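Throughout our pipeline, every protein is held as a single compact record rather than as scattered files. The remainder of this section carries one protein's record, kept here as part of the documentation.

===
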Amino acid sequence: MTYNVRYPNPDDGENTWDRRRAHVATTIRMQLPDLVGLQEAFPAQLDDLREMLPEFSWLDAGRSGDDVAGEYIPIGYRTSRFDVEAEGSFYLSETPDVPGPGWDASLPRLVKYAQFRDLTTDEGFVHVNTHFDHRGATARVESAALLRQRLADLAPVEPVVLTGDFNCRPSSRPYRVLTAEMDAGRSLADTAELSQTPAHGPTTSMTDFTNLIPDKKIDHVLVSPDIEVLQQGTCSDMYDNGRFPSDHLPVIADVSFPGEV
């Protein structure tokens, strides 16, 4: 699952985090994911989700260099299913190991990654989570290229799952860089395209909390070709107040890793 949970903006009125947090947690729980990549999760929000979703552990990384403020892009994993063998992060910039924005990005943008071991099969894989800049067009293209290059080093042969809010549609150049067949970098494909069954739910992944925003499919789950995609969908659950839990919808993929029966 990938899910932008919307940062805790005090000016959000009926959509402030204290009114949404339980709905975000139950949305995650009801979809039964084993892995979750979040975006825009600030420290207090992640603390809430840790408390409400005790079946998950969270590997966090914040975009400020001190990791105490601002957006986190944590990876959550079901502890009954996976062990963590390694983890790390880097910045989407010309200097990936130095905190700060890159190219024309408005904010520092980060990649969080983890090497997991599946306790049911003893097979390893890498989960990568990110959030591309919403303003910098050059930054999004360069971020896609950098990410593909880094994946070749992080997971030269292991299966890869990439989750994120990429702030780009399937028709965009950054998306094409991520999914194109190239000599350099790991090959990736959209789970929506690989799914063995028709994709479920809306074809957009953004809301204004009360309505879907058409043609804004910017949240994606991408995988390496060795991963089988059984089904894929976008969750559009609303609650009794007639609102979505976030201004993004979670995107979910049911996949099978090599070695699974």
Q: What stands out?
A: The first strand starts at residue 2 and ends at 4. The first helix runs from residue 17 to 31. The helical segments are 17-31, 43-52, 137-154, 173-179, 191-194.
